[in-house]
Write a structure and sequence with these properties.
Blueprint (H helix, E strand, L loop, with lengths): L4 H16 L6 E2 L7 E6 L4 E5 L10 H7 L4 E7 L16 H14 L6 E5 L1 H12 L6 E5 L6 H4 L5 H18 L3 H13 L4 H4 L9 H13 L13 E7 L10 H8 L8 E6 L5 H4 L1 H12 L1
Helix pairs in contact: 3-4, 6-7, 6-9
């Protein structure tokens, strides 16, 4: 029987729960926040991992089990995703406030310029950290993430182009739940002129609070962080799924991601992972861990 990525995530979550019962496995930090939770494991250079839309730290547990012998890991979860109560994320904008709480975690725990890895929406949070507070981040890896996701689907897209679709997505989640995008997502992609996996495939994996999901997706779709890129001083690595098939949307990923990060003051390192789509760390775990080791140097 062939397992799909949702089955793999469920299995990884269950395995993580088993690990968490072992002494010295996962530990909740003493950090208190109404927007995020953080759990830690391992020793070594500090590495913060931030998940994407509708995901919690569980998506990192399999990867983290391979890395904990080399690094001190800090796994962030956003409140309102999965089973976590929404608390402060239930009202107003989400992503900027979450980035501010990750900064507070860094300063409260006296982490010295930690490395940050963010998947999808988490990559955008990492970009906010590295551009708004350059002194706080030592190096940044984004995983299948873009400063403006719509440009990966249609390079000429603007915020005004995307906003009507984002409003429809917002309402769909509010009234129908996160499962709505399993059927709505393809139509959005056709209207934008390309593939949809970079925007929508995280939806529904762990679900969450409808308001937090709707607001977060709206921000992911409509916020263009490209003007902030010149402020980033930390070295940036961009990891993304790739296919040698030119007929596949992933066959064009190289140029799309290079264009997305063109405004960085120092060129990024681009790591394409063949055979991976949006959930790179789950699709190709061995290749992804090797990319992380190169990133950490």
């Amino acid at each position: 029987m062939r397992l799909n990525r949702r089955d793999m995530l469920i299995g990884a979550t269950g395995a993580a729960a088993t690990l968490a019962t072992a002494p010295g496995a996962w530990a909740q930090t003493g950090f208190t926040s109404r927007r995020i939770t953080v759990e830690t494991r391992g020793r070594g250079p500090d590495l913060i991992l931030i998940p994407g839309l509708a995901s919690t730290a569980a998506i990192w547990h399999s990867t983290a089990s391979r890395l904990a012998g080399k690094y001190r890991l800090h796994l962030v979860s956003v409140r309102g995703f999965g089973d976590l109560p929404a608390q402060a994320n239930a009202d107003g904008a989400v992503l900027g406030a979450v980035a501010g709480e990750v900064l507070r975690y860094i300063t409260d725990n006296r982490l010295s310029r930690p490395a940050v890895i963010g998947h999808s929406m988490g990559g955008q949070i990492g970009l906010r950290l590295a551009s708004d507070w350059p002194w706080a981040v030592g190096r940044l890896m984004t995983v299948d993430s873009s400063p403006f996701f719509a440009a990966l689907i249609s390079p000429q897209a603007t915020v005004n182009d995307v906003r009507p679709l984002a409003q429809v997505a917002y309402q769909a989640i509010q009234f129908l739940g996160d499962e709505a995008l399993q059927t709505q997502g393809r139509r959005f992609g056709v209207e934008l002129g390309g593939a949809t996996d970079s925007l929508f495939s995280g939806i529904g994996w762990q679900g969450g609070d409808r308001q937090v999901l709707a607001q977060s997706l709206y921000e992911v779709m409509t916020v263009d962080l490209r003007p902030r890129l010149p402020r980033i001083t930390a070295p940036v690595t961009v990891v993304y799924g790739w296919s040698p098939d030119r007929n596949s949307p992933r066959g064009h990923a190289d140029s799309l991601f290079r264009d997305a990060y063109a405004r960085l003051p120092s060129p990024a390192v681009f790591e394409r992972i063949e055979g991976a789509e949006h959930m790179v760390m789950i699709d190709q775990p061995t290749r992804f861990v090797a990319a992380v080791d190169r990133f950490m140097g």
